[in-house]
Amino acid sequence: MTRIALVAGEASGDLLAAHLIEALKRRLPDAEFFGIGGPKMQRTGFDAWWPAERLAVCGYAEVLRHYREITGIRRALLARLRDEKPDVFIGVDAPDFNLWLERRLKRAGIPTVHYVSPSVWAWRGGRINKIARACDRLLALFPFEPPLYEKAGLPVDYVGHPLADVLPLESGREAARERLELNGRGPVIALLPGSRQSEVGMMAELFIQTARLLRERFPQAVFLVPLVSRETRTLFEEALWKLGHQDWLMMDAPVRSGFEITHVELDAAVNPSAGCLKLLFGHAQDALAACDGALVASGTATLEAALLKAPHVITYRMSPWSWRLMKRMRYQPWVGLPNVLAGRFVVPEFLQDEATPANLAQALGNLVLDGEVRQRLTGCFTDMHRQLRQNTAEKAAAAILPLLQSA
Predict the structure, then answer these.
(1) In this structure, are strands 88-92 and 112-115 parallel, antiparallel, or unpaired?
(2) What is the pLDDT of residues 320-341, one digit of tens each?
(3) Which residues contact 116 (CB under 8 A, 6 or more apart)?
(4) Beta bridge pairs of residue 316
(5) Domains in the chain, please, with CATH?
(6) What is the per-residue pLDDT across 69-97, written as a single tens digit (0 to 9) for each?
């Protein structure tokens, strides 16, 4: 029986790994999959020894606060994998966690694959040789990545991005609005403050303050806030209370506030005469497909927004110490994936000190109103979509099979 170990440390890695597991199962129906993973992986039958959420922290300062817990999990996992001796280990993203594991497992004779190139094209390019020593094969999601690794002698396959395979080329805005029962007259604005608890904790207040300014400009706007877990929803609600907006939490909020907030009430039609803030469990793709504009925390969600043809503004904040380190090591003027793929600014970015409610509300409001820019973005995003649509999971599975056969 083929036994395959995987580690995915956040929501985007959970999605990638789940698609890969399904593709491998079609070729190896009796295979076992185990390690660290999220709910999408577990729905495929993956045996999660630890949940992915335990690894989902961002920024140097944040990692340091959880250092003992994370390193303890990593040491325990290494010991268990050495005993279990899987036929292959696949580290899905999470490079600081996975490359350490891959290097030691490779020394122990276990074939290793790293799925998702670390962003060596953006910062810390010196990692390329370290990556080449750690893994037997690298699976790259973007077409500009393979040449970087081929110079270091590391076998690499461009497999495209699975989101480009599963998302339609057409945005499907009306269908998404129907699913969410959005029948108001105002613009629909999606707010995506991140998938990790640390991200939502850092940026929830910024997103709420931005929504308040946009509400002044668009009194009938509907704001959709998709959150991936009960913990992230709780953090967002706590930010509402901290800012004195607890009245938003009432179903029958006073008319003077112009806001109400509903919890996953997808069967309740939005009031067309007043603004509304809706918290959703998941439904990020529906929110992006339905919106006239989105505010998105930098990360995979920005690519998701582009593939769903959603005009958006990218933002990010982290601890001041983490930001100083990151800023010194950056190679490019942009961080959002749509801008990286285009090699230029196609959507606005506001990072750290520039990420103010006024800047974000102004940029997003202008985007919502500018039909010409929105049309141009749709064309640009469609070109990206076609380039990344590669039947990713099948390509990735095909690249891994030779390692399993040799094992």
Answers:
(1) parallel
(2) 877 776 666 665 688 899 999 9
(3) 13, 16, 92, 93, 139, 140, 141
(4) 351
(5) 3-160+390-406 (3.40.50.2000), 173-388 (3.40.50.2000)
(6) 888 999 999 999 999 999 999 999 888 89
Token pair listed for 117: 């190139």
Query: According to the model, what pLDDT value does residue 181 have?
Result: 87
Question: Which burial class, exposed, middle or buried, applies to 398 when counting CB atoms under 10 A from its CB (0-12, 13-18, 19+)?
Answer: middle
153 — alpha (psi -120 to 50), left (phi > 0) or beta? Answer: left
Show the tokens assigned to 84. Answer: 């279990």
DSSP string, 76-99: HHHHHHHHH--SEEEEES-HHHHH
Q: Write the CB contacts of 238 (distance below 8 Å, at least 6 apart in sequence).
A: 204
Tokens in use for 178? 């129907």
Tell me the Ramachandran region of residue 296: left when phi exceeds 0, alpha when psi lies from -120 to 50, beta otherwise.
Answer: beta
Block residue for tokens 């999601």: 141
**Which structure tokens are listed for 384?**
């990206």
The mean pLDDT value of the chain amounts to 86
Q: Report the relative pairing of strands 312-316 and 293-297 from DSSP bridges.
A: parallel
Distance in angstroms (rounded) separating the CA atoms of residues 181 and 270: 7
Helices 371-388 and 357-369: angle between axes, nearest 10 degrees: 90
Bridge pairing between strands 261-263 and 222-227: unpaired
Of 105, 128, 108, 106, the C-alpha closest to 118 is: 128
- Secondary structure of residue 256 in the 3-state scheme: coil
| Cα 236 versus chain centre, distance | 18
CA-wise closest residue to 16 among 171, 141, 137: 141
What is the pTM assigned to this prediction?
0.77
pLDDT band at 250 (very low <50, low <70, confident <90, very high): very low
- C-alpha span between 407 and 405 (Å, rounded): 5
User: Of 73, 74, 6, 70, which Cα lies nearest the Cα of 41?
Assistant: 6
Ramachandran assignment for 194, one of left (phi > 0), alpha (psi -120 to 50 degrees), beta (any other): left
Tokens of residue 30, six digits: 């009796």
Q: Measured on CA atoms in the order 211, 283, 366, 262, is the torsion positive or negative?
A: negative
Q: Which two tokens stand for residue 192?
A: 């995506």
